[in-house]
Design a protein that fits this description.
The protein is an all-alpha fold and about 110 residues long. It has one domain. It contains 4 helices and no strands. The two termini are about 25 Å apart. It is found in: Cell membrane. Keywords: Cell membrane, Membrane, Transmembrane, Transmembrane helix. Its main location: membrane. It holds the Pfam family UPF0060.
Length: about 110
């Protein structure tokens, strides 16, 4: 159960970061309203708070989070931007998830 809880916490953290970065992208690159910066800021604050909830050292959390972020970004590409991931995208995101699992759930000596 612990592993699933951590994984879902990483997923929520990644979504919050991607939303916080995607909304300014819409404003800057696609001419959307500058009002999108308000929910973007809130989403990035949520991202920071969620990242702080992880139960291990910050450096280990940040390193492992990168793997989940890659996976969620590829899902975002497909679900939100409507671009189907390539086999290389999927393979890379699975390798990143494997790296996250090794970092977070490997044995610890100390």
């Amino acid at each position: 159960m612990f592993e699933l809880k951590i994984f879902f916490l990483f997923l929520a953290t990644a979504v919050a970061e991607i939303v916080g970065c995607y909304l300014p992208y819409l404003w800057l690159k696609q001419g959307q309203s500058a009002w999108l910066l308000l929910p973007a800021g809130a989403s990035l604050a949520l991202f920071s708070w969620l990242l702080a909830l992880h139960p291990t050292a910050a450096g280990r959390t940040y390193a492992a989070y990168g793997g989940v972020y890659i996976f969620v970004a590829i899902l975002w590409l497909w679900a939100v931007e409507g671009i189907r991931p390539t086999a290389w995208d999927v393979a890379g995101s699975l390798v990143a998830l494997a790296g996250m699992a090794i970092i977070m759930f490997g044995p610890r000596h100390a």
